[in-house]
Amino acid sequence: MNEMLTSGIEVMLIGMGMVYAFLAMLIVAISLMSAFIQRYFPELPAQYPDAPVAQSGDKAVVAAIAAAVHQYRKKHRKA
């Protein structure tokens, strides 16, 4: 009985060690691939087209939006 328990623990530790070693190798491989890709294929900064500048529109529309925002904030004010 004692021999079987020792054998079971030994197999368990070997299995856990192999899993740990595989995960460590996987982390190293992913890190190396990431470094390789970053070095040879750097991420280019995003280039956004210049957005047209909005003209200050109708004053009535601006007033209506301001009133709606004020009313919303008044209704949803935290206690």
UniProtKB/TrEMBL annotation:
GO biological process: sodium ion export across plasma membrane
Record-annotated membrane-spanning stretches: 12-37
Location of this chain's protein in the cell: Cell membrane
Keyword Transport: yes
Protein's membrane topology: Single-pass membrane protein
Enzyme Commission designation: 7.2.4.2
Cofactor(s) required, per the database record: Na(+)
Source superkingdom: Bacteria
GO terms for MF: decarboxylation-driven active transmembrane transporter activity; oxaloacetate decarboxylase activity; sodium ion transmembrane transporter activity
One GO cellular component, as annotated: plasma membrane
Keyword terms of this UniProt record: Cell membrane, Ion transport, Membrane, Sodium, Sodium transport, Translocase, Transmembrane, Transmembrane helix, Transport
Chief place where the protein resides: membrane
Keyword Heme among record annotations: no
EC class of the enzyme, as a word: translocase
Family: Belongs to the OadG family.
Subunit annotation: Heterotrimer of an alpha, a beta and a gamma subunit.
Function: Catalyzes the decarboxylation of oxaloacetate coupled to Na(+) translocation.
Stated name of the protein: Probable oxaloacetate decarboxylase gamma chain
Species name: Methylomonas koyamae
Lineage, top ranks: Bacteria, Pseudomonadati, Pseudomonadota, Gammaproteobacteria, Methylococcales
Name of the coding gene: oadG
